[in-house]
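Quick one, probably user error.
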């Protein structure tokens, strides 16, 4: 099997980056969540955003220790 070189650390796509991308992308896709009634915030992507926040909080806490 052919071995591929590992990407540089700055080229790796982290879980945090993917979650942030998914949170934004979900705002442009109404397949999974219907549009809200007028005057209500659309919560599409909030689950990804919450996971990204938790992950970021964990990384900041570990970095500060």
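Nope, works fine. Designed sequence:
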């Amino acid at each position: 099997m052919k071995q591929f070189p590992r990407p540089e650390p700055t080229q790796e796509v982290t879980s945090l980056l993917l979650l942030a991308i998914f949170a934004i992308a979900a705002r442009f896709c109404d397949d999974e969540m219907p549009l809200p009634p007028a005057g209500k915030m659309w919560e599409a992507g909030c689950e990804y955003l919450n996971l990204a926040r938790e992950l970021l909080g964990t990384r900041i806490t570990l970095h500060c220790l």
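The two ends are 41 Å apart (CA to CA).
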